[in-house]
């Protein structure tokens, strides 16, 4: 099994961090976000629509228009952003782990999938856009990245 972060989710998080870190006094044009994070502009426009629909960003039209965070950066988690563009954080065979039912010898496997979801949530729901815009992560996340072997593939 491989846990993958889609390009859409990666770009969405990066664009949202860029908005939070922006020194602009007002809305930031999508083109500026795209250039700053090297994201294809047309793809970013679709991502920003998803983020707007989910209440993460707001758009302003007209001269000086662009995008702003719809709520404070400290209230927007990485999990919020990923869910906005990709849906639930963990799927098994395109189903939520809680919707699965295993029987017999494989019955304990469901506990593994649920534990995976809990741990993904624990990290992504703990990290806010404000943290990332400051260049930091919460202590619990930093401890995970500092653990021996964290950066090594088995």
Automatic annotation (TrEMBL):
InterPro entries, sorted: TR_Rrf2-type_CS (IPR030489), Tscrpt_reg_Rrf2 (IPR000944), WH-like_DNA-bd_sf (IPR036388), WH_DNA-bd_sf (IPR036390)
Residues spanning the signal sequence: none
Superkingdom classification of source: Bacteria
Keyword DNA-binding: yes
Record keywords: DNA-binding
Protein name: Rrf2 family transcriptional regulator
Lineage of producing organism: Bacteria, Bacillati, Actinomycetota, Actinomycetes, Micrococcales
């Amino acid at each position: 099994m491989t846990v993958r972060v889609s390009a859409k989710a990666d770009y969405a998080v990066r664009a949202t961090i860029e908005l939070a870190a922006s020194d602009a006094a007002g809305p930031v044009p999508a083109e500026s976000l795209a250039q700053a994070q090297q994201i294809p502009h047309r793809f970013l426009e679709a991502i920003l629509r998803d983020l707007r629909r989910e209440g993460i960003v707001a758009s302003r039209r007209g001269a000086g228009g662009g995008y702003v965070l719809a709520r404070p950066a400290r209230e927007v988690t990485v999990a919020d952003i990923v869910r906005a563009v990709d849906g639930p954080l963990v799927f098994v065979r395109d189903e939520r782990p809680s919707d699965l039912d295993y029987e017999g010898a494989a019955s304990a496997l469901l506990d593994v999938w649920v534990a995976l979801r809990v741990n993904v949530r624990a990290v992504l729901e703990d990290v806010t856009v404000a943290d990332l815009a400051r260049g930091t992560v919460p202590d619990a996340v930093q401890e995970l990245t500092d653990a021996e072997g964290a950066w090594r593939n088995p």
